[in-house]
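Running this now, will post back.
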Amino acid sequence: MAFVITAPCKEEKSGECVDVCPVDCIEEGKDMFYIDPAICIDCGACEAVCPVEAIYYEEDLIEEDEPYLQKAKEFFGQ
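Update: finished.
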């Protein structure tokens, strides 16, 4: 399981999450940041600092946010 960045991050890209990630699994895409689900260690540091509350644990995603997990996988070629 991993954390997932969802819709509130689109066009926002504040970036606090990148600064606190201990394993550098967050990368900037064209319109938002993405968390690499293969590297994420589920520490929750990113979720705690997100100013737009866009980061959720994969198991806690609501149905409308589930495509963001797939987008992250595709972004990282998984």
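The mean pLDDT is 95. More later if anyone needs it.
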